[in-house]
């Protein structure tokens, strides 16, 4: 699953990023790198940017860039999603 597909307020772990080296470095400065927990807080309208939270840092990221970040939904978050759907 990519970061762009992650449901709102669902905790996930970043597995790999396929971004340019420059963007990878800028995002790493914000705390976004492999093995980090991340969640999508808000989605912009009309394919707008995503508001993300990594630890105590919130920032915006374009959806095209978010599609290049592979994440794994954490087990507790998966259980919460199933409970909400039932």
Automatic annotation (TrEMBL):
Gene Ontology MF term list: transition metal ion binding
UniProt KW Iron keyword: yes
Alphabetically ordered keywords of this record: Iron
SMART domains according to UniProt: FeoA
Residue ranges annotated for the Ferrous iron transporter FeoA-like domain, each copy included: 1-73
Protein name: Ferrous iron transport protein A
């Amino acid at each position: 699953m990519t970061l762009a597909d992650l449901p709102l307020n669902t905790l996930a772990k970043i597995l790999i990023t396929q971004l340019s080296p420059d963007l990878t470095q800028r995002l790493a400065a914000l705390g976004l790198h492999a093995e980090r927990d991340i969640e999508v807080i808000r989605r912009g309208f009309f394919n707008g940017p995503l508001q993300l939270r990594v630890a105590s840092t919130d920032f915006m990221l374009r959806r095209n860039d978010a599609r290049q970040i592979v994440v794994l939904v954490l087990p507790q978050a998966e259980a919460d999603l199933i409970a909400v759907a039932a």
